[in-house]
Amino acid sequence: MSYILSIDQSTQGTKALLFDAKGKVVAREDLPHRQIINEIGWVEHDPSEILKNVIQVSINVIEASGIDQSQIRAMGISNQRETCIAWDRESGAPLYNAIVWQCARASELCKALEPHAESIRKKTGLNLSPYFSGAKLAWMMQNVESVQQAAEHHTLCMGTVDAFLVHNLTEEKAFKTDYSNASRTQLFNIRDLVWDEEICALYGIPMDALGQVCMSDSIFGHTTLGGYLKQPIPICGVLGDSHGALLGQQCRKPGEVKSTYGTGSSVMMQTGETLVESQHGLVTSLAWGLNGKVEYVLEGNLNYTGATITWLKDDAKLISSAAESEVLANEANPQDNCYLVPAFSGLGAPYWDSDASAIITGMSRTTGRAEIVRAGLESIGYQITDLILAMQSDAGIPVTELRVDGGPTANKYLMQFQSDIADVSLRIPDLQELSAMGAAFAAGFACGLYDTQTAWDNIAYTHYHPQKDDAWRDAKYAGWKKAVKQVLLHD
């Protein structure tokens, strides 16, 4: 039996999974890493800790499985996107902590670039924002002396987490990234498929500090996991985590849509080889490069979906566990019209208002704990629906099915509400680690272990279907849009 080792390096920690020759998970191990947050809300990770954890969690999963290491055919990597690192080309050592996708420290830098916002959007598919890697890397160039010195000596490497891991894990010390990750930096021209010299100059990023952009199913190099493996194995599948989930959800045809419910959410529509420019607040990215061709997606990103449930639990103290939110939502007064708009760090797509503040509105004498908790859950469904409607308008393709994954999909109230408010059927796979599965499948396709026709044969699904009529849906959604309008009406 042959196996694929897949790494999912995410915001909260690192997971290692072993997939067998039929694409089934046979073992999994996890390790968390520190969240480094200062008093003004800057969010960082220690790249050395992440690298150490990737190696250790890989060793752990191999040893826990009991397989012979010689049975591992290849390795795949999925990674938290937009989080970026600067490191030394010769030693591989980080020059500064990783700046995490959640961190908005570069907002002032972006404001200075607003005259170029439309040009940047046309080339990269992305709205000018500190959310993406380019502004974060520019901040390092302007504020970190070790980064400046490395640039002067032409030993500077800059990139996303995948590029840092590939460079430090591979025997070749390869400096490579894939199309999906490159397209989320706001430095990559998704039309010409090259790092854009003009944009890099605007951000002050040296072109020689950026890695080679490769197909997602390329051989990125070979690894022994820091000397643990007796024989090196190829790393031949690399994808940003949301793109990995898109592949794991088998969204291979134009119009197929997936939504990952995590801390935030990524909703993606496959548009194939057609680049669709959004007129409704979405962004355009590269889905991946597979089988010698690149494909595109429309995407909307939300800051607070699963994190809203965390806020209800940890900050508002309205629930003691995520599971309790489902119980309270079912107990809430059905006539109560309370809405929560979770703009705790502004609103993402399709509104793109970084100055918006969260509100609870529409409260009455009947509004209590259960009603506020239900409003928090429903805010997730409303935000996803905003993006689905925008995608339908941009692509001209009706969405009838949404393929979903992530922890909150276990909440039956939320899933039925999502199906009802968006008027779509939901398909939830029994395997929740879709990002790791996508990376594993890309690696498995590349090394010949998996057949693209049969890779998904062993996955079972749960389905939800709409149960409400148009009158209910229209009234509920109109209330949501009214609540959002209140959030957007600020000075």
Give a verbal description of the structure.
- There is one protein chain.
- This protein has 491 residues and is of the alpha+beta class.
- The chain has a domain at 3-241: ATPase, nucleotide binding domain (Nucleotidyltransferase, domain 5, 2-Layer Sandwich).
- It has 15 helices and 24 strands.
- It has helices at 47-65, 107-112, 117-124, 133-143, 145-152, 161-169, 179-182, 197-203, 241-248, 306-315, 322-331, 369-395, 412-422, 434-447, 470-488, and strands spanning 3-9, 13-19, 25-32, 36-37, 43-45, 72-79, 84-88, 98-99, 156-160, 176-178, 188-189, 194-195, 212-214, 221-223, 233-240, 257-261, 265-272, 283-290, 293-302, 339-341, 359-361, 401-405, 425-429, 461-464.
- β1 and β2 form a beta hairpin.
- The protein is globular and about 65 Å long.
- The mean pLDDT is 93.
